[in-house]
Design a protein that fits this description.
By secondary structure, the chain is α+β, with helices and mostly antiparallel strands. Helices cover 13% and strands 31% of the residues. The strands form two sheets. The chain has an eight-stranded antiparallel sheet with strand order 1-4-11-6-7-8-9-14. Strands 2, 3, 5, 10, 12 and 13 form a six-stranded antiparallel sheet that branches. Strand 2 and strand 3 form a beta hairpin. The longest helix is centred in the C-terminal third of the chain and has 14 residues.
Length: 281
């Protein structure tokens, strides 16, 4: 069975009740690893002795924070409690992104709000050397605004190697961790037809878990790809085990609403990482 197409989505989603051993969550204050880079004190605040951050969106501004360091590989976790009620047009993002003028690399979680009573959608995407268009969307089967949930990105050297073998570019540049909330009502809900209802503002998301299990890019690519230096590069994390594949298939069957691999309008030929794709909806 070919899992190249699966990886572009599932590398971002280690969240379906699957436990990854070797993770040291750590009780780390926000200021140890992150800086607020967007939004004033009304839109971005750090609470509970640095153990919680809050970002808000209103008609004047959104907000965001980024990691102080760039990373060359890692297992990146954020505990997120999304804004509730009527959040159509609101986008909350947790992602890795490169900087500079070279072709852009990125690994995305984007939570797309909706009108009250409709499920929030989680959209993932992968950019490599400036090329994206690898969106996949699932309807979340739980209420992500009712409590904190863990969202995790596993990025290691083996996933890079496996995809480049079939001619598919994969993120290889050093990347920072970005977290933000912003106005996406030009596209996020109903293709942009459903706008933000500012009567429900401010829209506030909460964040916890500021430890970073990542290889600082200053260590160099060789060390960041070393299995002896970092647990996430070990062989057992190169692919899904049987339990993870089963859980992933359940999510695809029940909750996936869009998969770029199946979009013949955007892709006249099947993207190479999707073929043969045995996870069609």
């Amino acid at each position: 069975m070919n899992y190249y197409g699966l990886r572009f989505f599932a590398v971002l989603l280690v969240v379906f009740g699957v436990v990854i051993s070797g993770v040291a969550s750590g009780d780390v204050a926000f200021d140890a690893n992150y800086n607020v880079v967007w939004g004033d004190y009304k839109h971005a605040s750090v609470l509970k002795h640095g153990r919680q951050a809050r970002l808000s969106l209103d008609a004047q501004s959104g907000a965001g924070f980024v990691s102080k360091q760039q990373y060359g590989s890692g297992f990146f976790n954020m505990r997120i409690k999304l804004a509730g009620r009527n959040t159509a047009g609101v986008v909350t993002a947790f992602y890795l992104a490169s900087s500079g003028n070279y072709g852009h690399d990125e690994l995305d979680f984007e939570f797309l709000g909706d009108i009250e009573g409709q499920p929030i959608r989680l959209q993932t995407n992968v950019f490599a050397n400036g090329k994206g268009n690898r969106e996949q969307k699932v309807h979340l089967w739980f209420d992500p605004s009712a409590d904190y949930h863990d969202y995790k990105i596993l990025w290691n050297h083996r996933l890079i190697a496996n995809n480049t073998k079939i001619g598919v570019e994969y993120p290889t540049q050093a990347m920072q961790i970005h977290v933000s909330i912003w106005n996406g009502d030009k596209w996020a809900t109903g293709g942009g037809n459903t706008k933000i209802n500012w009567a429900y503002a401010p829209f506030t998301a909460h964040f916890q878990g500021f430890n970073v299990d990542g290889c600082p890019s200053t260590n160099g690519r060789r060390k960041c790809h070393s299995s002896s230096s970092y647990w996430w590069n070990q062989r057992k994390y190169w692919n899904f085990n049987r339990t993870m594949r089963r859980k992933y298939q359940i999510v695809r069957d029940k909750f996936m609403k869009y998969d770029y691999c199946n979009d013949t309008t955007r892709h006249s030929t099947t993207p190479p990482e999707c073929a043969p794709n045995q996870f069609k909806n």
